[in-house]
Structures are given as structure tokens and as C-alpha cells.
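Quick one:
INPUT:
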């Protein structure tokens, strides 16, 4: 690949800059170093002014800039800018070793994210909260630039990585892709870790001027590349707990299994009503059950009964504190890290068959058109007649035989009508492709399969959505939205981002109508239907989701764009989500006639839950990515068809169609031309050939390297001149 020449370097080396050019250069330099003073000699050195004519011109220019009020001059003949810069607070997005972006807390204060070069980061790391000085003049790219003045809050001080030991010292090479510094460790602080083992290292010191931070090993995880070690590495990287605290476990084990007569009398008794659960085949925590009863008037009563977790987990207990801290269960490729201890999640609270269970319910009376005629919300007691796996229940519907096949078929028909009405009201059908690995006893991936969503999955989904919607609407209507409650909201999409997505979809022959919000929904649904089973399905689904706002928990009673609900909450999964526990508590409080509670306290809990939800999603993705990298390291050495799923200035991301695994072709490895990044249109353009590489392009690639530590797959375009040999990191 060729290198871009800097035609104006040193002003074409022969010519001196004009006085006005030199004045602008000096002013820009001092503006960008606000608060610092420099002598004329220091300015000449910093600006690398070498010709005598320009050197002699610096002092008179400085005096003139002082006279016109642009600069100030100290008694020591030092000069400084008088132009006040902007100061903002934001979070670091450390995209590559050369620079980071600062994402402002208040987006209105700046024109986009602030670019900060590595030398100006003041040892800030990814996701740190920092105070930044924004330079008055934009950089060459047209983007605002700045430098970090202060680290307000470290996002993390522990990292997972692989130890590299030499005779005199050791380093930990972090797994985290956005940690671009190796961590120096004194040999006495290795805690017995051996070369090439995975460890957790805590930062202890980072002196100004030091290139690398110093740390101390706090936990030795084991040999790199071993399945259990790598999963533990992911858990440690995201701060996920390895065990449940003894105090919380003891509280859980002390809870009685007996349900008193007094407790039963407080509840609606559904134990004689046909009830069943439908869950994944390997599930052990059954959050929800469906009751089914024909009424004398010919209508159907459908009850959505949810595990009554807050009956067992009381405020101000160790169980409550731990549930709040975890906020969600985390599902890695080979295990679940539960929010609640097993005694509760798989025992007391799990709606197991042939056992009396305490529940919180939303019960609907429906006609044959699936119209809700009445509903009731309150606490119940149930006795599940049957535990179905999704596959069993679907088979009973398909074959029209087996346990409760008539009830299941009727519920399925109603669910289809509810679903149809939801989409007619403007809901968006986002069904992403989910990959599941088949692992051997050592955790090695033997194969992968794409999870298929059938009618039975949609049946459960529709009734859960219905319950969540009616609970949210019930509270909102009770006092015209004035009562503090926990909502699940989803903002309308940014139309500019949708326009960009529409352009990518068009390359595959799909058109989006973006004239108004309702048409956006129906047009997106049409697109989702069209791409089912096609090579571009996963890429376009992911890009569509990225162009949407993110759903979050909040006390603000806003709507949910994706579901087309005026109000929505999470009520149906309290075993695995803390916000659902919050909803149960508030719901019962208002059912008992309680006054509105303090919104600020609940909003803090919402923010915490949203943060924990993101952490869980990131950890789940990391575990899947780890298995994808391992799977591709063992896969056949051949050319693969793929689709460009992302474009950056340093690389092209490609999703391999056959395996749904994503890798990257580095720009530096593309040998047929020098490519420049067109950020606005997310594409690379060859300077000579004008060849474009853009999102959605169909390409042929081969795997050239897999790195388990960094969870990366390096690809090369198959039409490159020389075919490289595949490599993989040692284990």
C-alpha cells in the first residue's frame, strides 16, 4: 500500500512562510495551549521553525499580537493566549493507540465528540470520566480537538491479561481491546503467576512521564487458551462475581418453603386453574406461567403469573443488596451467573410443576378476536400442571396431539392476532440472528447453530408484552402519570442515522420510506420480512438496531417506539432482572393505596440497572466472540463469502456468511491501493483506482490470524496478490 505524501510539509522545504501565515501558526499553537506561557525561543523550537528569516520574524509578530489584544505578555517576556477555550466533561472512548474520542456529557456544548491525541490524554483510559479543554480551532479533519486536563473518575483499575515474564521484569498484556498500554509488574508482585498465564492485575501507580502504568497481580486465573480460564477472564474483565456472598446465601437457605394459610388468604387462588410454563429446554429458573380458563360467558381468561420474588427478597437484607448490585443475570456461552442464589432462582421462586407457588399476576379476559375486555392485577397462588420446553409445546401444536395441545393452539391463535394488531399500531419487528455453540466436555466448540424462533416463542413473547404494557398503563392512568414508577422506554430514532441506514439497505435492493414515524415502522417491518434467510439478514438487522435509540429504565413515563406502546415496563422476569423487582414493589405499594414515592431515588436505581444491563450484554458478546474466534481457529482453511459489516479508518469489518463470525481486514494489509476513509459515508476510497469498499459489500475473505487473548479474527481479502499463511496465538 502506498503512503500519502505531505506536499506542504515544512512549506515545501524551500520557502519561508509569510508573516500572516506565521502569525496564524503562532496564534493557533498558543490558543491550543491555553494557560501555558512560552518564550519566543520556546515557540520557535515547538513550531520547528528552522530558517533564519522566520526566526527573526517571531518576536515582532508576538509583539504585534500583544498590541492587538490577541496575546498576553508576562514581565519575564513569556507569551500566552487570551482566547478562552471551552471546557467540557465527558467519557473517554479510546478507539486506538493513537487517539481517543471524548463523548461529552452534555452533547449541546460541543459540535460532536472531541478528538484527543494519545500524548494529550494525561494517562486517561477508556470510559474514564475526564475534564477536557477544547481547542478553539478545529483540526485538519474538521473535527473539534482538545486535551485532557483532569481525570475525574477512573472507570476501572483492574484488568485481565496474559503475563509475559523476562529475567528482570514482567508485563501484563491486557485482553481488553481498548486498553492500549501493557502493565508493568515487579517480579515480586506476580503472586506466583507463570509466563503466559492469565491474571487479574490492579493498577497501583502511573507516574507522570512513565509510558506504562505499574500494577500488582491480584488473582491468577490459569493457563491462557484453556476454556475455563478464558471464561473466568471474561468474568473478571467485566467485574462479574465468581460466587455468591455467604451472608446472602445464608439468608436464602434460611427461608421456609412452607406457604402459610394467612398468606394464601391474601391472594387469588388459581391452583385449580389449568396452568403451565414454557421455557428453553435447559432452563431451571421459571419466571412465568400461563393460566387458561374458559369463562361461562364464552370468553377466555388468560393469566400471566410471575414469580413473586419480592415476597422472599425483603428490603435492607443482604439478598436485596446483592440483587441490586448485580441487577441482572448474565448468560455466557457455557453458564449463567444468576442475580439471585440458586435456592431462590431454581427453587423457591421458580414456578416448577406440581408445586404451589406464590406469584404476581396480570389476568386478562379476551374475546375470540384477542380483544382485552377486562384485566385484573394482583397477587396469586398457582400450581403448575406441566413444564414444557419450547420444542415440546411447538410439537404439540404442530401435531395437534399431546398434553394441552388444544389450549396451546388456542393461545397461539390469540397471540398471532395480538401480534398482528401490535404491528398495525406501528411496532417494529426486530428479530436478530442468535448463534448458539455446541461445546464438548472441555468447552471446545464442535459446531454452531442459528437459533430458530417459532410460533411458541412468539406466543410467550406476546403475552409477556401484554402484561408489561397493562401494568405500565395501569399505574400511569391511576394518577395521570404523577406516581413514581419504573418504565422501560425507547426513544424515536434519529432520522439522520436512519437516512444513512436507508442508503446501505438500498445497495441490497431494499427501499425504506422515511416520510413519517408510522411509515418508518411499517417500512422497517417490510425490510425485515424481505431479508429473512438472505445473506445480508444479520448485517442489516444489526445496522438497523444500531441506527435506533437504546431502550433504558427510567421514571419518566415516556413511550416505547419499537413496541409502539404509550407506556411499557418490565414486570415479567424478576428472577433475573432487578427492575422487575422494583416494579413489583411499586405496584403493590400503589395497589395498597400508597402515595407517590421519591422519584430521584428510583431514578438512580434505574440508571444503575441500565448500566448493569449494558455490562451483561457486553460480557455475553465477549463470551460469544471468544467461541467464534476459537471456532474459526479450528475451521477449514479456505476462502469464505462475507459481507462488509463495518468500516473504520483502520480496518474493514466483515461478517462471514457461513459462520456468522466477524473479523477485520486491516487497511494496512490492503495492497492494491492507498485507501482513504470517508467518514460521512462510512467507506474507503482508493486514491488511484477510486475503488470503494463500503458497508454491505459482498466480499471473499480468508482467515490469516486468530487471537484468543484479544478475541479478534484477522482477515484478508481473498483477491490479495499473495496468499498468506494462517497463524494463531499460542495457547
Amino acid at each position: 500500500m502506498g503512503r500519502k505524501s505531505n506536499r506542504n510539509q515544512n512549506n515545501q522545504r524551500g520557502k519561508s512562510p509569510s508573516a500572516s501565515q506565521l502569525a496564524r501558526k503562532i496564534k493557533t499553537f498558543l490558543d491550543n495551549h491555553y494557560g501555558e506561557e512560552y518564550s519566543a525561543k520556546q515557540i520557535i523550537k515547538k513550531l520547528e521553525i528552522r530558517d533564519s528569516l522566520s526566526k527573526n520574524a517571531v518576536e515582532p509578530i508576538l509583539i504585534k499580537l500583544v498590541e492587538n489584544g490577541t496575546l498576553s505578555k508576562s514581565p519575564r517576556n513569556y507569551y500566552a493566549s487570551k482566547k478562552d477555550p471551552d471546557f467540557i466533561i465527558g467519557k473517554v472512548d479510546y478507539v486506538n493507540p493513537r487517539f481517543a474520542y471524548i463523548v461529552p456529557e452534555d452533547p449541546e456544548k460541543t459540535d460532536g465528540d472531541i478528538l484527543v491525541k494519545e500524548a494529550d490524554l494525561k494517562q486517561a483510559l477508556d470510559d474514564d470520566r475526564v475534564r477536557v479543554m477544547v481547542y478553539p480551532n478545529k483540526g485538519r479533519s474538521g473535527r473539534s480537538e482538545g486535551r485532557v486536563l483532569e481525570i475525574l473518575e477512573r472507570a476501572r483499575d483492574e484488568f485481565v491479561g496474559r503475563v509475559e515474564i523476562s529475567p528482570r521484569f514482567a508485563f501484563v498484556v491486557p485482553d481488553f481491546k481498548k486498553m492500549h498500554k501493557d502493565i508493568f509488574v515487579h517480579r515480586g508482585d506476580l503472586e506466583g503467576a507463570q509466563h503466559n498465564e492469565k491474571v487479574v492485575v490492579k493498577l497501583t501507580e502511573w507516574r507522570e512521564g512513565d509510558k506504562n502504568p505499574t500494577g500488582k497481580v491480584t488473582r491468577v486465573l490459569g493457563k491462557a487458551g484453556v476454556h475455563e480460564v478464558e471464561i473466568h477472564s471474561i468474568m473478571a474483565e467485566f467485574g462479574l462475581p465468581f460466587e455468591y456472598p455467604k451472608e446472602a446465601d445464608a439468608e436464602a437457605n434460611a427461608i421456609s418453603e412452607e406457604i402459610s394459610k394467612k398468606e394464601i388468604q391474601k391472594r387469588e387462588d388459581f391452583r385449580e386453574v389449568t396452568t403451565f410454563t414454557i421455557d428453553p429446554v435447559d432452563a431451571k429458573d421459571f419466571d412465568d406461567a400461563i393460566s387458561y380458563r374458559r369463562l361461562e360467558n364464552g370468553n377466555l381468561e388468560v393469566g400471566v403469573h410471575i414469580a413473586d420474588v419480592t415476597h422472599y427478597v425483603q428490603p435492607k437484607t443482604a439478598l436485596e443488596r446483592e440483587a441490586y448490585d448485580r441487577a441482572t443475570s448474565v448468560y455466557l456461552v457455557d453458564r449463567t451467573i444468576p442475580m439471585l442464589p440458586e435456592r431462590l432462582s431454581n427453587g423457591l421462586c421458580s414456578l416448577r410443576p406440581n408445586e404451589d407457588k406464590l406469584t404476581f399476576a396480570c389476568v386478562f379476559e379476551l374475546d375470540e378476536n384477542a380483544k382485552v375486555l377486562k384485566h385484573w392485577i394482583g397477587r396469586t397462588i398457582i400450581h403448575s400442571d406441566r413444564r414444557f420446553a419450547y420444542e415440546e409445546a411447538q410439537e404439540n401444536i404442530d401435531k395437534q396431539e399431546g398434553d394441552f395441545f388444544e389450549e396451546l393452539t388456542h393461545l397461539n391463535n390469540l397471540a398471532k392476532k395480538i401480534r398482528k394488531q401490535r404491528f398495525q399500531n406501528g411496532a417494529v419487528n426486530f428479530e436478530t440472528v442468535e448463534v448458539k455453540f455446541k461445546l464438548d466436555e472441555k468447552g471446545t466448540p464442535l459446531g454452531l447453530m442459528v437459533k430458530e424462533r417459532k410460533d411458541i416463542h412468539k406466543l410467550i413473547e406476546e403475552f409477556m408484552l401484554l402484561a408489561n404494557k397493562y401494568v405500565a398503563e395501569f399505574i400511569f392512568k391511576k394518577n395521570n402519570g404523577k406516581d413514581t414508577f419504573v418504565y422501560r422506554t425507547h426513544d424515536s430514532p434519529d432520522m439522520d442515522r436512519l437516512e444513512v441506514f436507508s442508503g446501505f439497505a438500498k445497495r441490497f435492493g431494499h427501499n425504506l420510506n422515511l416520510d413519517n414515524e408510522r411509515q418508518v415502522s411499517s417500512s422497517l417491518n417490510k425490510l425485515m420480512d424481505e431479508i429473512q434467510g438472505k445473506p445480508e439478514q444479520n448485517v442489516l438487522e444489526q445496522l438497523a438496531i444500531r441506527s435506533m435509540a437504546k431502550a433504558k429504565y427510567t421514571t419518566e413515563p415516556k413511550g416505547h417506539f419499537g413496541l409502539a406502546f404509550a407506556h411499557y415496563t418490565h414486570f415479567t422476569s424478576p428472577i433475573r432482572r432487578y427492575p422487575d423487582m422494583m416494579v413489583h414493589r411499586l405496584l403493590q405499594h400503589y395497589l395498597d393505596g400508597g402515595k407517590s414515592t421519591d422519584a430521584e431515588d428510583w431514578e438512580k436505581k434505574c440508571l444503575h440497572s441500565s448500566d448493569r444491563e449494558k455490562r451483561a450484554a457486553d460480557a455475553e458478546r465477549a463470551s460469544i466472540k471468544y467461541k467464534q474466534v476459537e471456532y474459526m481457529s479450528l475451521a477449514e482453511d479456505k476462502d469464505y463469502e462475507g459481507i462488509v459489516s463495518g468500516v473504520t479508518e483502520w480496518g474493514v469489518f466483515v461478517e462471514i456468511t457461513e459462520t456468522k463470525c466477524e473479523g477485520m481486514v486491516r487497511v494496512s494489509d490492503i495492497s492494491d491501493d492507498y485507501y482513504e476513509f470517508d467518514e460521512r459515508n462510512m467507506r474507503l476510497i482508493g486514491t488511484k483506482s477510486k475503488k470503494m469498499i463500503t458497508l454491505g459489500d459482498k466480499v471473499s475473505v480468508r482467515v490469516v490470524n486468530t487471537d484468543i487473548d484479544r478475541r479478534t479474527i484477522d482477515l484478508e481479502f481473498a483477491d490479495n496478490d499473495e496468499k498468506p499463511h494462517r497463524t494463531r496465538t499460542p495457547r
